[in-house]
Amino acid sequence: MTDINPPRNEVAGTDTPDRANRNAKLDQLESFRSDATDQALTTNQGVKIADNQNTLRAGDRGPSLLEDFIMREKITHFDHERIPERIVHARGAAAHGVFTSYGDHSWLTKASFLAAEGKETPVFVRFSTVQGSRGSADTVRDVRGFATKFYTDEGNFDLVGNNMPVFFIQDAIKFPDFVHAVKPEPHNEIPQAQSAHDTFWDFVSLTPESAHMVLWTMSDRAIPRSYRAMEGFGVHTFRMINAEGKSRFVKFHWKPVAGAFSLLWDETLKLAGKDPDFNRRDMWESIESGDPFEWELGVQVVEEEDEHSFDFDLLDPTKIIPEELVPVQTLGKMTLNRNPDNFFAETEQAAFHIGHIVPGIDFTNDPLLQGRLFSYTDTQLLRLGGPNFHEIPINRPLCPFHNNQRDAFHRQAIHKGRANYEPNSIDGGWPKETPPAASGGGFESYPERVEGHKIRNRSASFGDHFSQATLFWNSMSAPEKEHIVGAYTFELGKVERVFIRERQVNEILANIDLELARRVAENLGLPAPSAPSVAKKEPATPNSPALSLMNHLPGNIKSRKVAMLVADGVDGAAIDAFKAKLAEEGAMIKLIGPTPAPVTTAEGQKLVIDGPMDGLPSILFDALFVPGGAQAVALLEKSGDARHYLLEAYKHLKPIAVLGDARRMLAPLQLQADAGLLEGDSVDAVFDPFVQALAQHRIWAREAAAKAVPA
Ligand code: HDD
């Protein structure tokens, strides 16, 4: 037995500001970083402070003096620390990284970051939940924001997407209504970060265009296991334009290298209390340990002349283009490999905007997209206090930026010269326009021909709200369908008004699928609808395998987290062997003990513990290993926490390997071996099936039996 865990304060990189990964953006940020090591404590004016413990007062016990500029400056600054949180997507976490183009994609776009094989562009990506406030839990049922800022050499390109490919509404004018409905109710500000309440279901049951997206949010997509395990989507149809001026329609996709998989609902509820930072901690710790988050960027491409060849409107943001109809072509790879140095300066002040595009990319007339083009600048003006937010270090382009916009709050640049207008002859006419060109030219909007009457009207081509929801439902595996029924039941069960429950079942679910409607109705004690309430259009494609998470597993166990339950007298050799094999597969291992104190193995070796059972509960892990050792098992058998650990891991369908003496813990808990509950005398006997089970993410066949487990 050689392997001893390093004590936690020696774990590499947990608080090292000098992180390894560099890129041009990180180098630019370097000049703004402030390091107080070996520096004197000063006021903001640079005056050294002699006493940071006591206010200036008249005598030991006398009143404080107004002239204490040190205390006043400190408290004034503190009073102003908070800025308005984002009206949506308030809770988020971000990381730096790099995008590498797989090739020269100039047949499609003249965007320079896609123009050459191996071309690298720094990125900053912020993931978020939508409805909750800044301090809410990570694991709530919600859409996840997936906002990427590419610092290209022709300006910043922001791809401000979500982890779902459609949206709740078709027109931006409905966004404030939708957000008001889903946010906590206005009279008592309850519930936090939950859609399970009357106003949300009132709105969506009256808004059939939301049916498809609400179905996505009731699916496992809304409770991702990790940010690294989510797909991302640009949602709208965009344009890409090449150097010849040829425009094509595109839909952006992020395909996670780690595969896509989710939590179970019961886990999310528990995690919200036991580790509200579950997703952001996972990203932080992985990146700190040198394990990056990776995606491939892809596009579905539709030729201009095929715009009307689908049975839905490409401009309708409540529709997908099934990947089986138009395959995703990959363009490059994004690697997130460095954490921010300061949450506020970088993550909180990052200002994304769907209107930040570069030559070679353009908008379409999607009415949701068009409204967003207004909203994002407007919101930054309030949130970041003025129009100079582009000068905040995290938002600055990497390429030069010059114009005649001047002054306003928080201006950083010191503009030289006398001419702040254009044309001018005083400063040589600079800065000057750049004509559009095949590369390096000025931005030119795609000259789309537009004509029409000035009207407020929804195109009839946006009128089918259900057939793609039916397609999604039809494409789910049996466990996924089960979870969707459970989610509608949970959410509608929290709705106080029965007529809202009924409306959702009869006028929305019945139009998606009668079986779905019947099952939810039964669970709610409502009569099951016998027919759709509208004339139903069948989906053009009966089934889209790309929609089911079951088809997105990575086929390996890289980065998956395994808990090892140990106590004094544990079989140290088995731990060593299991750890070594898991490390070969790229999995991560934590030792969980009865308390944070080190544990002594049967061989007399001291093992440093990563955490106790209550501090690092089973819900934080993907799988569990319980080694043998007579003395250890005798201790674990008597521990309610240890038995709960096993039961809970079983209930959440996780692979469990139980060795030697530990096998006798199963019978009293009434746990029976299955494809993922593995017993054996040696590590070799259980390891391969353990890895296979973990690569499947969960033991779905166990789900019915797990319902009987009280954990
Ligand atoms: Fe939005 C933030 C994604 C529709 C108005 N949105 C925001 C963020 C993401 C999205 C990921 C967080 C950015 C960050 O991390 O800072 N939003 C979407 C997607 C949509 C969408 C994928 C539909 C396809 N949004 C949408 C509409 C409107 C807004 C229709 C308004 C008409 N969104 C905003 C906002 C936010 C925002 C109020 C809040 C904070 C911010 O912009 O910077 O402007």
UniProtKB/TrEMBL annotation:
- Record domain Catalase core: where: 42-430
Catalytic activity as recorded in UniProt? 2 H2O2 = O2 + 2 H2O
Q: Does the keyword Metal-binding apply?
A: yes
Q: Note whether Heme occurs among the keywords.
A: yes
Enzyme Commission number(s): 1.11.1.6
> What segment(s) does the record annotate as region Disordered?
1-22, 421-440
Q: Which InterPro entries match?
A: Catalase (IPR018028), Catalase_AS (IPR024708), Catalase_clade2 (IPR024712), Catalase_clade2_helical (IPR043156), Catalase_core (IPR011614), Catalase_haem_BS (IPR002226), Catalase_immune_responsive (IPR010582), Catalase_large_C (IPR041399)
Q: Keywords on this record?
A: Heme, Hydrogen peroxide, Iron, Metal-binding, Oxidoreductase, Peroxidase
Which cofactor(s) does the record list?
heme
Recorded hits in SUPFAM superfamilies, A to Z, give: Class I glutamine amidotransferase-like, Heme-dependent catalase-like
**Top-level division of the source organism's lineage:** Bacteria
Enzyme class, UniProt record, top EC level: oxidoreductase
Give the family this protein belongs to, as stated in its UniProt record.
Belongs to the catalase family. HPII subfamily.
Function recorded in the entry: Decomposes hydrogen peroxide into water and oxygen; serves to protect cells from the toxic effects of hydrogen peroxide.
Q: What is this protein called?
A: Catalase
Q: Which organism is it from?
A: Stutzerimonas nitrititolerans
